[in-house]
Amino acid sequence: MNCLDAETLAVWFDGGLNGAALEDVRSHVAGCDRCQMLLGAMGRTRAVVPAPVQERAASFAKASEPKPRRWLAWAIPLTAAATAIAVWVAIPEQRNVPVVTPAAAPEEKREAAPPPAAPQPETRQETTAPAVPPPPVPRAQRNAAPLTAPPARAAAPAAPPPTAPSQAPPPAAAPPQAERSASATLRAPLPEARVLDQQQRAAAAPAAPGDARGNDAAASTQAPLAESITVTGETPQGALIATLCGPRWRSAPSDVTGALTAGSSPSPNVCWVVGAGGVVRRSTNGQTWQRVPFPEMTDLSGVQASDARSATVTTADGRSFRTSDGGMTWARQ
Amino acid sequence: MPRERFAEALERSAERGADVRALHLEDLALACGCAAGEEAAWEHFIREHRPTLYRAADALDPSGSARDLADGIYGELFERSLFRYFHGRSSLSTWLRAVLAQRHVDRLRAGRRLEPLPDDESRAAVGPAGAGTYGAAPEAERPRYVALVRSALQGAVANLPPRDRLRLACYYAQELTLAETGRLLGEHEATCSRHLARTRKALRADIERALRTEGRMTEAEIAQCVASVTEDAGPLDLRELLNADEPVAVRKKSAADRSRLRERA
Q1: Are A51 and B187 a contacting pair, CB within 8 Å?
Q2: Of B204, B202, B220, which is closest to residue B149 (Cα–Cα)?
Q3: pTM, to two decimals
Q4: Which of A52, A170, B42, B142 is deepest in the core (most CB within 10 A)?
Q5: How near does any CA of chain A get to the CA of B213, in Å?
Q6: Tens digit of each residue's pLDDT (9 = 90 or more) over A92-150
């Protein structure tokens, strides 16, 4: 092989040589004084090259290396689906949380809590026999979110008792529309349930003339129709935020390791989320989250915000706290 | 820029076996525009690439003597004769550096041919000048040590696989960085570093073996010899040894022939 010409030298330095041509060049340069001097000269001029060009050369060189086989790419979604099914089968508790209407939750609270060991085997039995719903578990009680609904609606008699096996309805048919328009408890899969819930709200709003939210005058003076959704179960934070605040929300508060239980997004860029241990976070730009101090280290189960400064937070034991200054002060209601 | 010109340039690149998908199309279009005399293309070239050319010249020779090479290249570019050699297989800036490096090296080598090469006697004479600073090595033994190590090193380097020789040349003789050396050899810089260490170890073992067998040295003498030469390599030049495809005797003979030719001239 002859000595390197300028073009071959440049292509080699940019990582564009491969195969037999590359091996020929290497074997020649290994024994050629002139070509080695060319390498040295190119090396001495490295500092004059703008950084992007060097990076491009490096990335091109990397890209020209043999790539891993791509024909296994189809296995990625298949593996993900198999993992999801395995998790779904292995953790029956998540999918067996009963649908709780706002009116039913106080009844649950009045009932005695079941023994701690009871939920696990019974929910497994529930997996194979769906006609027999499990008794309410403590998590369901804690995460049920009736507290965002007005007390009058919470006492509505139309809600079926959650413990009646034959009355365990599908989520779309259980509560009256007037009840669903205010608040609902979701169960997995969360995004689908949320879409369904929003559709139900849209359908329910004009059909409830007696409801305060159906009254235009009242709606104009009261808080806007805030989305208040309580989530049971544990999901990855990112997907959870999308569920709590809306599909376009993606970033989750990075400093929250525990479960977030509820969220409320009164406007496209504002969302409040609450969780266990008195966690309250607020975003006013749709991207970053602010820590909002809460007076008690108690589990929070619901939030209903009217704007970036005003929100009502409900604790798991049924108390409500309201702030109208972005969380600087809280008043118990 | 006329599409026909760019299409012709692409055809020329394809004729040279270039993968069209990997071409630097923006730079190729710029070169076509400059070759066509388009003012906007020239303004862009002068703004983006001309400084690169002159900075590269200064990096090659800080004294400024390489600037005339850059002037020459720029003149040829301005006359549009040089752009037709650019096919977009590399970036334009890398190609400009390569053209400059090529001319710089050729000029250096042409100048070196005019200088008399030192013979072995003069090389050996360099060694004793610093005698007395080589630890316990006797002054009289110094030329012998250097000659023995030189011979052993040359044999060890000649026995290296081409890839290892290229790695040594890039890193030690041409002073490329580990990353650059690794990129040229298609390996990560950490891998390159490990290979260099392994090659050094192999060279050391080969040299000691040669000193033991050919030089008939004891272990103590070997240690003294290596320490002496390591402290001051004297006339040993790794760059020269790496490119010693031909035996030293032949190189000496050709150097002597060149000297005689010059004397006759």
Answers
A1: no
A2: B204
A3: 0.46
A4: B142
A5: 27
A6: 554 444 444 444 444 444 444 444 444 443 333 333 333 333 344 344 333 333 333 33
